[in-house]
Amino acid sequence: MEILDILISASFWAAAIRIATPLILATMGELICERAGVLNLGIEGIMVAGAFAGWMAVYSGTGLWVGVAVAMVVGMGFGLLHSVLTVPFGLSQHVVGLGVTLLATSSTYYAYRLALPQVNSPPKIDAFQPYEIPLLSDIPLLGQALFSQTPFTYLAFALVAATSVMLYRTPVGLAVRAAGESPAAVAAQGLSVTAIRMGAVIVGSGFMAMGGAFLTMSAFDSFFFEMVNGRGWICIALVVFGSWMPGKALLGAVLFAAFDALQIRVQQTGFGADIPYQIFLMAPYILSIVALVLVSRRAQVPAALMVPFNKGER
Amino acid sequence: MRLEPIADPSLARSIAPPAIAIIATVVIASLLAMLAGANPFSVLGLILKGAFGSQFALLETLNRATPLIFTGLAIAVAFKAKFWNIGAEAQLYAGALITVVLGTGALPWPSFALIPALAIGAVLAGAVVLLVPAILKTRFGVDEVVTTLLFNFIFLLFISMLLEGPLKDPMGMGWPKSARLISEARLPRIFDGLRLHWGFALALLCACAVWVIQTRSTLGYEMRAVGLNRDAAAFAGIPVNAVLVKTALLSGGLAALAGFSEVAGLKGSLTLDLSPGFGYTGIIVAMLALLNPLGVIVSALFVAGIFVGADSMSRAAGVPTYLADMMLATALLLMVLAIMLTRFRVVRD
């Protein structure tokens, strides 16, 4: 009964959309990389770097949107590193990705310690505030859930639409998808597979960093260690769950976030108080694995995912 | 640009890129330490002194290398068959869990029986933990990268639940910590008075055993064949899925020994900070060793040396300790690039 009450409350759905936002951004980033044929396991570290860079920029006096741009540029920097190593040099995408995650995470923590040597608790910034879209926010339930979020969340939804249009309605998107399916055909058209894949990884990494920045600039107003806490890995699962399609991946992110918001609330009910809290924290990860089991058989994996392309080799 | 294989690389070609990678890592680390106000020219010396400069430092490095040899072997075995086990951290904790469950009084046996029983129990636990992603992969086609990664989070929460519930030490002053092992369950020291336990010897033994399996057994041959080309291996009649499952069992068991040796040899009880990411660092160890089991020993010592040395250097020079992780990440990325450049040349077109 209590669970039903939770499910029909507007504040629950508003929380779900808020929790979904960083996942949506980073999932779109990963999806673009993988559609071009590159698995980017740097995602977890790039989100950490983005979270710090955006927050630090605002803390040092820039505007909020400039902070978002700074986070994006930092993410693109790590994307450049990843793509140089994995695309023209064709190195193992698993190893490079994990290396980029370690490098991005440790250099972020290093920079944090250098920038703020003697603080016990990290300073706060004036984060993004919710903006109620006129008229739309008056719709019952939906209005509060979807149209009373911060502008950062609206940006995330806009980026899903933009990614979808880019992938399916533009020549660039066709080239990206072809690079992930049949790079030899792309090369035969006189296009550079290297340039397409590198571009996709760099842009995708920028999106991942924005996902991280949402945590410090909209969900919270400060930077903490361990704040990303495996969200990047969840996004890798969400891309598979969404069968490499932006719309389905968005749906997956919202469902996952709704489940996450639900477990937090059920913990506080009478029935949830008797269960160890770790069970609730485990549930989203277990759910992700179950979801993968259900969809993996049917998933349309990009045919050239994780296959390096070396021109002239056949 | 494009890459062209070199038919038979010269000696210089084989040595120069890795050497440059190591030198570049040291230079980058020195510059980073300079950002934090340290003297860049003292960095290398302080790291070497901190890692190998005294008996205490050396033993510390060997102790740190022990779990890394186990996890490095676990990754080397798995990656050789292109089974991407990123979950050595979970398997390590599985081994540690069995060690405290059986070693805190449940089995009142003498050392010579109890210690092997704990080690075998740990191996089985780790193997079972990795068996789940292996079966999900072979049966349902679920990518093992995602499942093994997510398992790390699930398993750590599971351990946390046990440490705050049934396994909690009543004498632990409220800390989430298991009871201590009985003295019969503790791994003795190799030399009297020196802080180095038999876990290190076991790690060396495992490295040799894995080398024998990989180079001298049918399973090793099949694992390499599956790693090189799964379709070709299947065409040649190798049961690919069965080989992947066997690889997973071996890999999970090896990673679990890291947990066993840390608990039984060093810590004596299980806490949530038992492993500062040994499972993930094992990937670096294995890659730097080119997935060679004997090379894993050398690269584990190198990585442990960076950790111990950079830690001591950071304290001496007032540099944030995250420098050690940055050095390792840099070394890893430059080294995989360097190793590729020993076999390929870059050609402009």
UniProtKB/TrEMBL annotation, chain A:
GO terms for molecular function: transmembrane transporter activity. Signal peptide: none annotated. Pfam families: BPD_transp_2. Keywords: Cell membrane, Membrane, Transmembrane, Transmembrane helix. The chain crosses the membrane at residues 6-26, 38-58, 64-87, 94-112, 198-220, 232-259, 279-296. The keyword Cell membrane applies. InterPro entries: ABC_transp_permease. GO terms for cellular component: plasma membrane. It is found in: Cell membrane. It is a multi-pass membrane protein. PANTHER family: ABC TRANSPORTER PERMEASE PROTEIN, SUGAR ABC TRANSPORTER INTEGRAL MEMBRANE PROTEIN-RELATED. This is Nucleoside ABC transporter membrane protein. It comes from Sulfitobacter marinus. The lineage of its organism: Bacteria, Pseudomonadati, Pseudomonadota, Alphaproteobacteria, Rhodobacterales.
TrEMBL record, chain B:
The keyword DNA damage does not apply. It is a multi-pass membrane protein. GO terms for molecular function: transmembrane transporter activity. The chain crosses the membrane at residues 20-41, 61-79, 91-109, 115-136, 145-163, 196-213, 280-310, 322-341. It is found in: Cell membrane. The keyword Cell membrane applies. GO terms for cellular component: plasma membrane. It comes from the Bacteria. Keywords: Cell membrane, Membrane, Transmembrane, Transmembrane helix. This is Nucleoside ABC transporter membrane protein.
